[in-house]
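Q: I'm building a small set of examples for a reading group on sequence design. Run inverse folding on the following structure and report the sequence directly after it, with nothing in between.
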């Protein structure tokens, strides 16, 4: 038996007036997934434990069968693992976004215009981070470059317990009420202000402005945490697994669990990613000896954060008619039974442009036991009508593996 998870990050949503009261999952054209729903177990699952924030870190860890209440130590440490940063037990790491703030004179009076600085390219971002490093690094703080707008700050003997707000939670809002607070709050705020003074007139940003793009005119610190303890996916589930993703967070979870990281050319972490390449890479990995592949697609989440209905629908359609359809075609030639789980990690509603912790719709298909539970399609409403509800995210993998 082979196992594949197709994870559409932030794919679930709320009904939208622009879609006639339908969600993007209901409004999009996805015949391949809808046909599977008729012969699958379809239901709802709460992937974010009560009392925890609905981040992709917590939710993806949960879907991968790891209870976040036991294993989660913060978002940034997982990204640091992917970047290859050596961490000590005393280190505190923080996600360091390159963002676009409005141009008011006082930092506190600025607004969060773009949490991703216009999806800045990795090349441009690397130049900015290299410029910032000698100005911001000191005997305790070290800045590391990541991918696109996503970077990392490591603080030696750092302090935990700080109140740090994800920038994608405050799009278009005044930042005054969301600035760092806590034991290291003043230090982090000072670093963010210094970064703005350094970046606002940098040639990279001047070129971006001239081209009509958002400048990366500040860093924004959030997602702090400490080094997590590794947990072996093979030891836990008895399967050799692999992870396909364009984002460091999910790759970091894969590294934490000892899974193979499968890189695919053309993966962007957005709607223009190489959907077919991910599906083919998953099939090749399974043919080459892996038992389990986790295919993570960030595109619906990014579109949700940007309030982009059209591209969110497009991304879901690509997941259905390119990723899932390609997987089914590849499996038909392998001659081996397989189990397929399709779900989001959390909803990212267009209307809110941030994550929520509502239960997500899931679809669990077994090629050797095609048996539906009443769902005529795959979406939030159909999943709710089946009456199937899982109260814990790790139950998805448990049911997938029949444990």
């Amino acid at each position: 038996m082979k196992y594949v998870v197709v994870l559409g990050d932030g794919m679930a949503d709320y009904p939208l007036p622009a879609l006639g009261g339908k969600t993007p999952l209901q409004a999009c054209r996805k015949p391949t997934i809808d046909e599977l729903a008729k012969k699958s177990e379809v239901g709802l699952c709460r992937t974010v434990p009560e009392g925890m924030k609905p981040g992709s870190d917590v939710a993806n860890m949960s879907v991968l069968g790891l209870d976040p209440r036991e294993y989660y130590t913060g978002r940034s440490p997982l990204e640091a693992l992917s970047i290859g940063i050596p961490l000590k037990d005393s280190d505190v790491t923080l996600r360091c976004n390159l963002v676009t703030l409005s141009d008011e004179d006082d930092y506190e009076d600025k607004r969060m215009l773009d949490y991703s600085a216009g999806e800045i390219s990795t090349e441009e971002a690397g130049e900015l981070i290299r410029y910032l490093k000698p100005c911001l690094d000191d005997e305790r703080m070290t800045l590391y470059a990541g991918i696109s707008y996503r970077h990392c700050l490591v603080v030696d003997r750092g302090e935990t317990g700080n109140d740090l707000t994800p920038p994608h939670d405050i799009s278009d809002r005044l930042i005054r009420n969301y600035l760092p607070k806590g034991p290291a709050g003043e230090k982090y705020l000072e670093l963010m202000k210094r970064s703005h003074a350094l970046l606002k007139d940098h040639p990279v940003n001047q070129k971006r402005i001239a081209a009509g793009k958002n400048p990366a005119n500040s860093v924004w610190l959030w997602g702090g945490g400490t080094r997590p303890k590794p947990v072996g996916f093979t030891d836990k589930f008895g399967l050799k697994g692999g992870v396909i993703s364009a984002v460091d967070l999910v790759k970091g979870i894969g590294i934490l669990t000892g899974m193979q990281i499968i890189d695919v050319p053309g993966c962007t972490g957005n709607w223009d990613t190489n959907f077919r390449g991910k599906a083919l890479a998953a099939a090749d990995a399974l043919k080459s000896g892996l038992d389990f592949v986790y295919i993570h697609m960030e595109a619906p989440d990014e579109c949700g954060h940007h309030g982009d209905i059209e591209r969110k629908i497009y991304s879901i359609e690509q997941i259905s008619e390119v990723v899932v359809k390609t997987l089914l075609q590849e499996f038909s030639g392998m001659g081996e039974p397989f189990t397929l789980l399709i779900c989001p990690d959390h909803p990212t509603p267009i209307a809110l442009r941030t994550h929520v912790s509502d239960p997500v719709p899931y679809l669990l298909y077994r090629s050797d036991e095609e048996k539906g539970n009443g769902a005529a399609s795959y979406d939030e409403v159909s999943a709710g009508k089946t009456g199937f509800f899982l109260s814990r995210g790790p139950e998805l993998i448990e049911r997938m593996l029949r444990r």
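DSSP finds 15 helices and 13 strands in the chain.
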